Fold this protein.
Amino acid sequence: MATKRSTLSVAARETFGSRATRRLRRDGLVPGVVYGHGGDARPFQVPERDLRQLLAEGQALLDLEIDGGDAVPVVIKEEQRHPLRGEVVHLDCLEVRLDEAIESEVPIELEGADQAPGVREEGGVLEHVTREVTIEALPTEIPERISVDVSEMVIGDTMTLESVTPPSGAKFMVDEPAEFTIATLSPPRVEEEPEPDLEEEAELVGEDGEPIEAPEGEEGAEGEGAGDGDGGDGDGDGGDGGGGGE
């Protein structure tokens, strides 16, 4: 819960466009904008290092100071990140009143996953299905995260928001908590063995593990059959010759 707020000092941004934005990022600066109560937007730029340190603290509420002016309480509305490097490339903030409740996305963290019987004893697979939830609270009551205990889950269990108590001073903005799945625990995945080739299935194998060869008699019979067929053709040809003599 936000009790002590950090201050982020930024500078007003006066250049815009994709070229100016690329130049800012090359100089180690991150562009951003803060939206006020009347909808007015104030663009700013902040050193990437300062922003990274502040985000690492995980605070939902902070004070934003532009060009050394009066700090105003804001919440981070959106962090746009590079799809490959993961670094923040743009920051959106929203100015808030400390006496008015607001809605905010809060991350969900699982606790006790390694102690869950379904994982530890049965080798099940725990899947973290939903990682954020929307809550409504005063800016000073917004928690940094919501921890969910899954240490008692067994195979076949499903953890929903219905079994989670909201933080003090906050409420979940979900219509059907029983349908809001947080985590599931499934049976262990079994890798199927590859099916043998057709040639391997058709091969005869003896008790000693060696392939069984066809008996010599059968091979001879096959050879004799072929010879008979040839001889029959010869007899036929001879018969035709005799007929010619007549």
User: Anything to note?
Assistant: Residues 216-245 form the longest helix (30 residues). The longest strand covers residues 72-81. Confidence is low (pLDDT under 50) at residues 220-236, 238-246.
